[in-house]
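Encode chain A's predicted structure.
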Amino acid sequence: MKHYDCIIVGSGPSGLGSAFALLESFPDAKVLLIESAEISSGGLRNDCKMNFTFPVGFPYEYWTKESAAPYLEKTESFLKPIIYEKNNLEIYTRRAERIGVELLRIRQSHLGTDGGIKLIKQLTAQLESLGVELSFGETLQKADEKLHTVITTKREASYGSLIVAPGRHGFDFLRHFMADLDIPYQDNSIDVGIRVETKQEHYPIVADYYDPKFLFPEQTRTFCTNSGSAHVVQEKYTTSSGHDYYSVNGHAYSENLKPNGLVNFAMLRTVAFTQPIASGQDYAEHLGQLAMLTGGGHPIMQRVGDFRLGKRTTSEGLNDDLYDFTPTLKSATPGDISLAMPSKFLESIWKAMKRLDTIVPGVLHPSTIMYYPEIKLYANKPVFKNKWFMAADDIYLIGDGAGTSRGITGAWASGIRAAEGILIKLGKK
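Encoded structure for chain A:
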């Protein structure tokens, strides 16, 4: 049985961040990084939008502004992002403040999906040159806390430390992993919402602020804005019972590719359940399946003009009059999102959309599309033994799937933090 100083599960930003941080102080470490997918996955591959201002990406349960600052600095120093400029925001800020909305000013960088893939290739090649063993298409099946061993789909190995960083797609995997090791956790919070797609001329703020962050009442916010060469996509998820559903998301390519004149962003409502719902994950899966049933196995799309009239969108209604652009998610089913989306979410989101149209007039043009569902599953909250995200002896849980981050920079920072805990225990720091 081969022994590794550290086994890392997951090749997203949290897994990569932990690997680089370990090797910086422990260059001779024997490190194995495994990934269940055949390619490196995570936020770096999907649009690669990075935020470098607290609290974006840093959940308050685990971070303060003071504790996050050195990790943000280290993350930025390593990734060396080109920060986008922001201009002419005073008028939007004043409009927002008048109606109880906050516009956050975030230091941002954007590589695009193509730029993110290029960065991943550079980072994984760098890890290999440092001696890390990378294995794709390999899934962790079982870990033994007492024996410090793991069984995967390819091997049995022993470890000094185990870092599990599965990302949002690994949310359900992490639930089962924690249950097997009797690690206490909660997963009672979820984000549910829509993805909005419209012409850039109807949301001109993106010319001055690439990913504007608006915070609305009722725990509603904008999230992940894409413009230039922007597209809405669907992402496949599998429920714990084995059923598939799709959640929509947004992508944009780098400035090197031809723009299509469109913009998309998410409008999300956060809900934290108490009694009697024990699992936000289970609830979200039911919402996803209901959306698939309503949309005939695909996400639902509805034009704002039809929604305001209380009628469903039809394929015949997607004409070249008011509805003057082609939806980028061609597989979406024209329909009525109110048949699938709970009213508590829909009412809060529609109120926020009306406020946003007051701040940035035009976003509620009749042609604007609302896609449903967009569901974010990164609310696992393990009970950690220390501030280094150790959940069991020498087992560390990090990244969006473990609830320690919400985005690339927070995930990378949580990887550094876990690595520091390991290095301190080894006397290497």
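Residues 193 and 374 are 5 Å apart (CA to CA).
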